Amino acid sequence: MSGLSWLEAIVIGGLQGVAELFPVSSLGHSVLLPAVIGGSWAQDLDVSAPESPYLAFIVGLHVATALALIIYFWRDWVRIIRGLITSITRREVRTPDQRLAWLLVLATIPVGLAGLALDHVFRTYLAKPTPTAVFLVLNGVLLLTAERLRRWADDRDATRDTVVLPVVTPAMTGGGRHATTAPQTAGEISDRRLATLPVGRAVLIGAAQIAALAPGISRSGSTMVTGLVKGLSHEDAARFSFLLATPVILAAGVLKLGDLAGPLGAGIRPQILVGSLMSGIGAYLSVRFLTAYFETRSLRPFGIYCIVAGALCLAWFTLR
User: Fold this and answer.
1) φ and ψ at 213, to 5 degrees?
2) Is 297 helix (H, G, I), strand (E, B) or coil?
3) How buried is residue 175: exposed, middle or buried, by Cβ count under 10 Å (0-12/13-18/19+)?
4) What is the 3-state secondary structure (H, E, C) of 179-206?
5) What's the rounded mean pLDDT across residues 206-233?
6) DSSP string covering 70-117, please?
């Protein structure tokens, strides 16, 4: 490996930050873009190569992406973590914040175990240009299929009554320590709805992140697809996906900080810092955009993009 240029660090850093939260697979793009460009890019940015310094670079990008998510949702995370702490200390699960906190914990366990067991296998054998392009096409098909299934379900249930979730108020709880106030923001209202998810359904949505171990399959895309199929709105599916992604991405980076501090990071730490800064900025802007986007829009444009981009990459690799 010859190293990591400043241009490579800036481009891949920004790409990682944006694509990690868009349902288009950040890892897939990090594999495909260098392969399409070729030359030193393909050599420097080979994620499947054993003991590659590129892995240390990816660690920095993951940590920066997770920090951007924490910054954007910091008020929500304070509320959710407070709910988890009070649930543990009081040995209860009574409030929406307490229940949502435990749903996030339980839904993260499957992908955490799968990542520890399978990450190296998936990266070594599947993080190559042709399989990645195939998975990207498959990712697009899944996004479009989920939208079609959701549309059929909406058409079938168009006449059903709207269910209004009750708001717990101090008057309803007698003003005791479990009293909560009405939600003040769209995020809090969404979290109230998410807190009503059955445990099994929440764990299934979280487990869908395992599919993203395959380069070309999107983490946010897989969780949103599962959420939509299981009855969530686009807004709630996107929010649950972003909340689920935060601990997973952060853990993936923190667990491999040794790569960054060790020999793999030697000589490229300034590039890692710049790339991480780009990744953090890209992730923050992405989550801000997507949170508003999914209030009224669908996964369809991303599905079409994945199919076209994956097919073009396959053609490029075949014909060149």
Assistant:
1) -65, -25
2) coil
3) exposed
4) CCCCCCCHHHHHHHHHCCCCHHHHHHHH
5) 94
6) HHHTHHHHHHHHHHHHHHHHHT---SHHHHHHHHHHHHHHHHHHHHHH
- pLDDT tens for 31-60 read 999 999 988 888 878 877 766 778 778 888
End-to-end C-alpha distance for the chain, whole angstroms: 23
Does residue 13 have a pLDDT over 60?
A: yes
Let me know: does 72 contact 245? Beta carbons within 8 Å: no
Question: Cα 313 to the chain's mean position, in Å?
Answer: 23
pLDDT band at 181 (very low <50, low <70, confident <90, very high): low
State residue 163's pLDDT score: 45
User: What is the 8-class DSSP label of residue 5?
Assistant: -
Hey, what are 189's tokens?
Answer: 């209202």
Distances (CA, A) of 41 to 73, 79, 271, 303: 34, 43, 14, 27
The sign of the dihedral angle between the CA atoms of 280, 141, 193, 92 is negative
* Cα-trace Rg, the chain: 20
* 3-state secondary structure (DSSP) of residue 265: helix
Q: Which two tokens stand for residue 250?
A: 């952060």
Average pLDDT over the chain, rounded to whole?
87
The number of beta carbons lying within 10 Å of the beta carbon of residue 38 is 11
